[in-house]
Amino acid sequence: MALFDNQHILSTILFTPLLGSILMLFIPRERANAHRVVGNLFGFLGLAVSLPLLWRFQVGQADFQFTEVHSWIPSIGARYSLGIDGLGLVMVMLTTLLGAISILSSWKAIQKREKEYYLLFLLLQTGMLGVFMSLDFVLFYVFWEVMLVPMYFLIGVWGSERRLYAAIKFFLYTLAGSVVMLLAILAIYHNAHTFDIHEILHSPQTMFSVQLQRYLFWGFFFAFAIKVPMFPFHTWLPDAHTEAPTAGSVILAGVLLKMGTYGFLRFSLPMFPDATNQFRGIMIVLSLVAIIYGALVCMMQKDMKKLIAYSSVSHMGFVTLGIFALTPLGIAGSIIQQINHGISTGALFLLVGMLYERRHTRLISEFGGLSTPMPNFAAIYMIITLSSLGMPLLNGFIGEFTILRGTFEVPHYGMTWAAWGVLGIILGAAYLLWLYQRVMFGSVTNPANEHLPDLNAREYATLIPLVILAFWIGIYPKPLFRVLDESVRQVVEHVNPGYYQAQQAAELPAPAARPVSPAAGQTSSSQAGK
Amino acid sequence: MNIWNDLFEQTRRDLPLILPQVELAFFGLGILLTDFLLEERFKWVNAVTAMLGVGFSAYALWRLHGVPADGIAGFKNSILVDPFFVFFSFLFLASAALVILISVRYMEIEAEHHGEYYALILFATLGMMFLACGNDLIVLFVALETMAISFYILTGFLRHDRRSNEAALKYVLLGAFSSGILAYGFSILYGISGSTNLASIRATVEQRGPADVLVLLALVTVAAGVFFKVAAVPFHQWAPDVYEGAPTPITAFVSVASKTASFALLLRLFLTVFWPVRVDWTMLVAAVAVLSMTVGNIAAITESNVKRLLAYSSISHVGYILLGLVAANQRGFQAMAFYLLVYAFFNTGAFATVIVLRRKGVIGDEIDDMNGLITRNPGAAVLMLIFLLSLAGVPPTAGFVGKLLIFWALIESQHYVLAVLAVLYILPAVYYYFRIVAAMFVRESTDTFHPRVTIGQGVALAAMTFVTLAAGIFPDPFLRLATYSLLLPFGH
User: Fold this and answer.
1) In which element (H, E) is residue A119 found?
2) A443 touches chain B (CB under 8 A)
3) Across the strands, what pairs with B366?
4) Is there a contact between A186 and B411 if contact means CB atoms under 8 Å apart?
5) What's the pLDDT band for A60 if we cut at 50, 70, 90?
6) Global pTM?
7) Whether A309 contacts A238, CB under 8 Å
8) Which of A406, A529, B36, B399 could link A327 by a cystine bridge, Cβ 3.0 to 4.6 Å?
9) CB A331 within 8 A of CB A492
10) Residues of chain B contacting A244 with CB distance shorter than 8 Å
């Protein structure tokens, strides 16, 4: 079918959720179940139509794939241009998967205004997918901002008590970053005379002068740093995550935050390499502060959801640490860690949401000894906790380990940075296990918890795919590394061009000088991961 | 009787150039005549007549759309029919049509449904159209006053409403004051050049140069007069009161058409007469623009009345549009034209939604009146959301493209500080627009009233929504339209 050939499949994926939300406009609002069904249908359809990407994607091809270009606004030179590389592929898959799962998880949690809820959720899906697919700056920016509106409503209408405050805070923070990015985009056009991301990426590296790169770097930095969120810009996150409905939190943590790190990898590093190298120290310090600070704040939380929200700050700190290590391992690890974070934090939010549906509270002190009434819940929760804290054989370990190795490789400071990172892992294990202990172990102290029902089929359906993915990435991450390989190489060649030459030169004299990573090619990283 | 022959010849030759205005005048006078024959419940016929007038005028205008870029002069060079005029006149006619459509029900509820109302709308539009084609100080001034006086009356049209009367009085007094200042500026221009024709004044100004005291004095006084009309800070104080007091359709008309017409005047003057001395006014306009964005955005944050809030927000929009003039490049003019074009639709749209809420006994213009609108009238709530997003400049709406072009023009002309200020002012704007959004979508309603949309309102809302979304998602035709008007002959 023409819709599914390689030139159109991205559009099909992009607009499937939108089609669903348009369809819902015509269903009367009283028929809540019809909306649930249609919402879920299109959630899964969105996942289904994105699956062909997995086997059609050409591993090892340097360029963007599945490209599609149409004229859009010729008078200002903006085009409708889509395409993905390895990085885009994993982000698109993460989005469609988490989208389907979170829509499914809302079946019982959302009991008012179902029509608007599912409609907005599907709209949000389209917006997020567009961000990861756009190869034109104007198109990218449109999608980047479009998704703010549905998210505002998801938090503002279906959130908990302080939802309005959290929603507008989220909106304004994110907008503050993105409007500055808009200026940077226009400045890029002014100098490069194109909005075409592909063309700018593949032009000679001297496209922007060093001075201009500095301005542009900061112009983009605020947009991405607020989204990630990096340390001083993170204050919107605990509010938004805590107040949002479960599915909103899953999507926020799972996909929205990744838009920031995606932006760093797609734009900041390859387009402004000199500025990146110059400001890398600041970025690393901010990442380390986020790791440690986020973890310490987690220790103090009384609210489960808030704890997981702050753990996002810490985990995303790892991701930015890996990115700004500027080594292939660091970057590959950071992308893997983004997926991991989507899986494990997404699952943690789902689990907390299930508890909330049963008890209508998220306070840690209200729970205790839940493993007695809910053994299956406890088992899955354990797996996810372990995955989140970086237990070998589970996904978190692969990401964190690769990031730390990539950081370690950096001459001079690498060891110090990695050491601080490791401290973050230890703290992470502490708060996650402590949370688990307080909620799950011991005897049931609160009578309300004595007869909580265990997981039902729908809840299994939302959690099992994530558990399977956690194990798969933990045990056999090689395919994932291979998909990302080429994207990572492209980024590193732009931002750290000396790296590969140094690698080749280092291979010739036999005894390796450095203790770690003798002759670490980018493909052998996967074995190292195990 | 040679002079009569001359006049007759002149009129016969140049009448097609002003036919659109003449038709408006005829229909306006016609309404005044037929109004006597109509019973109270048939007053809507006046609206139909007015719509017909707008339609005929638009057709006459359409026949002028092929005029050459440097225009056709007429009536002894006192008017100039060029693409600039055609573009702006279409905009005036479109806003007049929208305003007529949203007026019928509103004026019925107010029990002030008289024929003069529609006649005055047509006369005001006529004044605006002459304002866009005037090539002579006298024509410009008379046109401006025709428009302004119609608006003074329309503002005070709700005779039994104290707010309306107060607004009209304020508007007249301050308006007269500003017209006086403007006339003073015109007199200086006449004094230094000995001519009322814009082209010859321009030649004199060019010759005298930017450091000449009289030129500066003329510039400052003219600018002050025009800034008053567009409600730019520091000449904006009348706007919130007039917006609040005037009948809501007229508020929309003042905030859109009157503003656009004044911008046409401003562009005509600044890009012909004062173009040679632009070093003098760039900083002046930039300062006014920044002040307008600042005051408009900050004052709107605490407003609880939707009409006043929109008044302040429209002051900030004036600031954005003026930035296009500061940039003073091709992109900047395109941005201004595009912005004014789409602003006419989405801003009227926002007022139209307020009108939908109007009913006997409840004015419905407080933010609290919007509470829970999504459950009471989902359609109106969603449309209001679209208009507000567009006002705030969030894609995929027309407002975003307009702001994008303004920022772009600023970057191209290397006004980086202004560009950063301009983008950051989006934040307070989003904050106050979203207070309305939150009221509509999140807060519970205490009111069981389900506002209904009449056919006229429905048609107007559909048109406004269409333009807001179409110009946001596929802006190309609208951009070409803006480029068509692009003031090419000016200043180059």
Assistant:
1) helix A114-133
2) no
3) B305
4) yes
5) confident
6) 0.92
7) yes
8) A406
9) yes
10) none
Q: Rounded distance, CA A50 to CA A338, Å? A: 19
d(CA A238, CA A419): 27
8-state DSSP, B386: H
The amino acid at residue A290 is: A
Q: How many whole angstroms separate alpha carbon A277 and alpha carbon A263?
A: 16
Is residue A423 less than 8 Å (CB to CB) from chain B?
A: no
Q: Are A328 and A499 spatial neighbours (Cβ–Cβ below 8 Å)?
A: yes
B-chain residue closest to A154, CA distance: B442
- CB–CB of A137/A189 below 8 Å? yes
Q: Going by C-beta distance under 8 Å and a sequence separation of 6 or more, which residues neighbour residue A43?
A: A17, A20, A99, A100, A103, A104, A121, A122, A125
Q: Is the pLDDT of residue B249 over 90?
A: yes
Q: Hey, what are A13's tokens?
A: 């994926």
Mean pLDDT over the full length of chain B? 90
Q: Do B442 and A163 touch (CB under 8 A)?
A: yes
Locus of tokens 């904050």: B431
pLDDT at B1: 60
pLDDT score at A203: 78
Adjacent-strand bridge partners of B359:
B362
Q: For chain B, say whether A186 makes contact (Cβ under 8 Å).
A: yes
Q: How far apart are CA A390 and CA A136, in angstroms?
A: 37
Distance CA A366, CA A47 (A): 37
Between CA A237 and CA A231 the distance in angstroms is 11
Which residues neighbour B80 within 8 Å (Cβ) at sequence distance 6 or greater? B71, B72, B73, B74, B133, B134, B135
Which chain A residue shows the shortest CA-CA distance from B412?
Answer: A190
C-alpha distances (whole Å) from A422 to each of A110, A171, A418, B1, B10 are 40, 34, 6, 103, 90
- Find the DSSP H helices in A228-327: 236-243, 246-251, 257-263, 269-271, 273-299, 304-325
Interface residue B404 vs chain A (CB under 8 A):
yes
At B371, is the secondary structure helix, strand, or coil? Answer: coil
3-state secondary structure of B73: strand
Inter-axis angle of helices B198-208 and B213-230, nearest 10: 130
The answer to whether B412 contacts chain A (CB < 8 Å) is yes
Does the beta-carbon distance from A171 to B389 stay under 8 Å?
no
Contacts of B476 in chain A (CB under 8 A): 72-75
Percent of chain A with pLDDT over 70: 95
The token duo for A206 is 């001297």
* Minimum-distance CB partner of A156 among B411, B424, B438: B438
With an 8 Å Cβ cutoff, is A152 touching chain B?
Answer: yes
pLDDT of residue A520: 42
Q: Distance (Å, rounded) from C-alpha A13 to C-alpha A5?
A: 12
Parallel/antiparallel/unpaired status of strands A78-84 and A65-73: antiparallel
Q: Give the model's confidence band at A69: pLDDT under 50 very low, under 70 low, under 90 confident, else very high.
A: very high
Q: b/e per residue, A338-348, with b = 16+ CB within 10 A? A: bbbbbbbbbbb
Q: What are phi and psi of B72, to 5 degrees?
A: -115, 125
Alpha helices by DSSP H, B63-161: 83-110, 115-133, 137-155
Strand partners, A79: A71
Taking the C-alpha atoms of residue B488 and residue B337, their distance in angstroms, rounded to an integer, is 12
- Quick check: B430 contacting A, CB < 8 Å? yes
Selecting from A113, A163, A180 the residue whose C-beta is nearest the C-beta of B423 gives: A180
Angle between helices B44-62 and B2-34 (to 10 degrees): 140
User: By CB neighbour count within 10 A (0-12 exposed, 13-18 middle, 19+ buried), where does A309 fall?
Assistant: buried
Mean pLDDT of B40-54: 90
Write out pLDDT tens, residues A395-451. 989 999 999 999 998 888 888 999 999 999 999 999 999 999 988 888 888 888 888
Please report the ipTM that was assigned to this predicted complex.
0.92
Rounded Cα–Cα distance for residues B213 and A362 (Å): 72
